[in-house]
Amino acid sequence: MSSEMAISVEGLSKHYHLYEKPFQRLLQMFTGRRKQYFNTRRVLSDISFQIKKGETVGIIGRNGSGKSTLLQLICGLLNPSGGSIKTHGRIAALLELGAGFNPEFTGRENIYLNGIMLGLSIEEIDEKYTATEAFAEIDYIEQPVKTYSSGMYVRLALAIQANIDRCLGDQRCQVIGARLYDTHRNPKEICTPIHFDTTFSIDRVP
Amino acid sequence: MSRCLITRDTSLMQSFSSSPTSMLSSILNNKSLIRALILREITGRYKGSILGLLWSFVTPLFMLLVYTFFFSVVFKARWSGGSDSKSEFALVLFAGLLLFNLFSECVNRAPGLILSNPNYVKKIVFPLEILPFVSLGAALFHGAISLLVWLLFYLVLFGIPPVTALSLPLIVLPLSLLILGVSWFLAALSVYLRDISQLIGILTTALLFMSPIFYPVSALPESYHVFLKSNPLTFPVEMARDALFWGAWPHWEGLVIYYVVTFLVAWLGFAWFQKTRKGFADVI
């Protein structure tokens, strides 16, 4: 695989197993193939694509066609049912912005906590702190984030994510997509996210 | 299910090793995250309150005062084999309770570790296996403050504590292994079996009375000793009391066995967690 490749997906498929009770998931793990406790719902089947470094890619599909599932698979949050995914570099999931935020803590504290969660070291965050704060454009950085407006919340979350090599964006990110794009073009900012937002369709298997 | 190979710097779905070395490396690899989360845990608890962190000092102080009053004035309890000192009972009791609280605080929270953090499972890539370290770390901090209060009381009432008190960390370490093992096991199991979180409160309360916290092992007839000794908390509680109050060094041979057993518990709990975590996202 060339070093130019950021993400490469081969023959990926995902079936969700639906269980009536959570406990059945555990039973299934131990009974193996002898008994089946779940119903299968096929969401993705045989998907292959490659994304080069620096590309902005979008994924288009109808509601429930598996866009988020694909992103979750790439992030490693879900197990693929078949196929393979290869990724290089650090990946941030914008699956839900501010997912790791603690509402009682200030913007500054959350920048550090979330940064660490995303795999940055304290030194790296220190280094990028000013830029992160500037990107977020929040005057209340020392206030608990529960007092933030939803727009401020999302901007702060995005500012943190922008420190990561690759961003996988989902939902609400249209709002901020434009901002990321600006930053991308603007050499003053240090953030250089390579973000995917939208461009190929998914085979939908009903 | 076919395997998929993903090369990246954070831990990944497929490669959940359950070896004892990965138990250790999950601490080392996530040092700063664990530290930040423990800090959040400790400061977060009192966030917004006026006394703030002082609460972790006031709470044990108040509890010890209550115990001292009740057991010396109201119940006039005497520790068997102890002296006539009025406050002795409360201090002996509290020494055992220190370790029990460490255990029960973590174990009571264990079923909620994964369940209360669905974002960590489904929305971000997060090393879930470190959550028991975080709750243990916070509990150890609060335990240390309680110990400080205990030492202050001892200093005022009896003078300098015995030198054997220095062996306390050697007793707390295997207890921590036990706590981690049980936490991993319960955290994972309760994802699939939601009844656990209801059950665990009852079990820890029962365990409080079934452990020699309010009484020494010797207070029970010989025939019950086997039953009491099979309780994994009996050994550390008795050892801690000996070390802190009675001035006796730990039973070294027993301590070595306890290390071996608790290490096995930790490892089994960890292995169970790593084995079953693949299904978390499916049912949360």
UniProtKB/TrEMBL annotation, chain A:
Pfam family name, one: ABC_tran
Source superkingdom: Bacteria
GO terms for cellular component: membrane
Entry-linked InterPro entries: AAA+_ATPase, ABC_transporter-like_ATP-bd, ABC_transpr_TagH-like, Bact_Polysacc_Export_ATP-bd, P-loop_NTPase
Residues covered by the AAA+ ATPase domain: 53-206
GO molecular function list: ABC-type transporter activity; ATP binding; ATP hydrolysis activity
UniProt keywords, alphabetically: ATP-binding, Nucleotide-binding, Transport
The protein's name: ABC transporter ATP-binding protein
Organism: Pseudomonas gingeri
